[in-house]
Amino acid sequence: MLIEKTKAMNKEQEASWASLGGCICEGNWRKIIAEHNHLFGKSYVHNGELYKFDGIVWGQDDFYYLMINMSDRTCHQLTCVGSIEQQGFTLYV
């Protein structure tokens, strides 16, 4: 039953988006995603702590990099103005 409800909700949502003319993405959203897609899931170090780049959040006022602290599982948002590295994070390889 839950699966059928979810499918119906998804169809309603798709129909709603289609009535708006397709994707409702605005501004630099697609560009930011394309530029950072290869970094999703990568690990970074900041102040001796290990973080995972978990995605990009579209906030009320701007876009943010979503970083997960791997030791305490807290979420941290970094501004998308500039790079992750410019905010003191180093790619962990």
Can you tell me about this structure?
The chain is α+β, with helices and mostly antiparallel strands and 93 residues long. It has one domain. It contains 2 helices and 5 strands. The chain has helices spanning 2-19, 29-36; strands spanning 43-46, 49-58, 63-69, 75-79, 90-91. A 5-stranded antiparallel sheet has the order 4-3-2-1-5. A hairpin with a 4-residue loop joins strand 2 (49-58) and strand 3 (63-69). The radius of gyration is 17 Å and the shape is globular. The protein starts with a helix and ends with a strand. The mean pLDDT is 83.
> Which strand order do you get reading across the main beta sheet?
4-3-2-1-5
Which structural class best describes the helix and strand composition?
alpha+beta
Spans of at least 5 consecutive residues whose pLDDT stays below 50 are none
Number of domains: 1
**Overall form:** globular
> Total strand count, please?
5
What number is the mean pLDDT? 83
Strand content: 25-35%
Helix content: 25-40%
Radius of gyration: 17 Å
**Helical region count?**
2
Distance between the termini: 45 Å
Sequence of secondary-structure elements: HHEEEEE
Q: Could you give a short account of the major beta sheet? A: 5 strands, antiparallel
